[in-house]
Amino acid sequence: MTVPANTVAADRVRAAISASDLALGLRIIADLLEAGLPVRRVLAAFVTVSPAAWRPAIPHLQESMKVGRSVAAALGDAPIEIPPLVIGIVAAGEAGNGLAAAIRRAAELTESTAAVRAAVRGALAYPMLLAAAGAGAVALMVGVVLPRFAAILADLDQMLPASTRMVLQLTSVTRASFGPVVCAALAIVVAIRAWKATEEGRRRWDALLLQLPLGGSVRFSASTARAAFSLATLLDSGVAIRPALAFAARASGDAEVEARLLAARDRVAGGESVASAFAAVQALTPFAVRLVSAAEQSGQLARMLAHAAKLEQERSERLVRTAVRLLEPALVLVFASIVALVAAALLQAVYSIRPT
Question: What is the mean pLDDT of the chain?
């Protein structure tokens, strides 16, 4: 019996690949395709110029091309970790006869995502250092200094101040509950990962993430950008709206948005306009839906979708940077409050041993 490709992919241990190596490899493949080489010759040339992280996948890709598989299917079960977004965009490009452009766009999105992540990590460096220093200072004061003062006061038959007793009680509760809380957190993480491994669980989890106050907006904008670009590419290549929506749904990178786009496709098949179908199921952001509505009236749907994708991508990146900028003062405020509380408890303990 033949083993399905997705089963083989699930059983294979995939090698990790960095976003920069993934993007570089995709760009090289796109360049070779744009030079007019067929896919099999592209892979033959790719052997000598590919990044080292791509080497484990090249024999698999070459074998897949020999048996007539699509590039997206070959990438989908390659022995390296390729995001579903990349695979969806490549599949959309193959369906629209724009494989080189799709692979280049996948490389650009990968580079953009990597750049945003690098910027976020760089911006988080100081807040994380601040958090570590604040946590260390609080731990030193609560775990070492206050207990010693409490012991001194006990030897002197002095009553501990109320604030000092409160902080010491909180410390005792934290120490006693640390182990159970960590075990419970690990169990919850394992349960969530197992739940997300199922199709329904992944969709519900993505739907939950879309409801978050700020993170949901970022995720929805990014998913809209990916889906709108894929749909624009397909329509510009002459693909009909129904199959184009199916590929765009996969390229969105979000299970809930994918389900909404597929629901919108069914509405469009029933004679509803694209903008009306999107609005009814909230498949795209309201801003993108308004652009789609205007585009349907002017007959420039593909062009307007590409414009919407660009604007939504910029919006998602802007929201991420804004959130990071707000994190630093928030951390300062939180740790300043904690240190002030502990310092007040310590000072009251010191002053309590002075003669009245």
Answer: 81
User: 264: which residues sit within 8 A by CB, 6+ positions away?
Assistant: 245, 274, 277, 278, 280, 281, 283
pLDDT at 276: 92
| Interval 282-322: pLDDT, tens | 999 999 999 999 888 888 888 898 889 889 888 888 888 78
* Cβ atoms of residues 268 and 334 within 8 Å: no
Beta bridge partners of 15: 80
245/268 Cα distance (integer angstroms):
10
Give one DSSP letter per residue of 241-278, joined into a string. Answer: HHHHHHHHHHHT--HHHHHHHHHHHHHHHTT--HHHHH
Q: Can you give the pLDDT at residue 3? A: 36
Q: Check residue 354 and give its pLDDT.
A: 60
DSSP 98-125: -HHHHHHHHHHHHHHHHHHHHHHHHHHH
pTM passes above 0.70: no
Burial class (CB in 10 A: 0-12, 13-18, 19+), 23: buried
Residues 6+ apart with CB under 8 A from 121: none
Which one-letter DSSP state was computed for residue 83? -
Domain boundaries, the chain: 5-82, 132-356
Q: Which fold has domain 132-356?
A: Receptor-associated Protein (1.20.81)
User: What is the Cα–Cα distance from 163 to 22, expressed in whole angstroms?
Assistant: 55
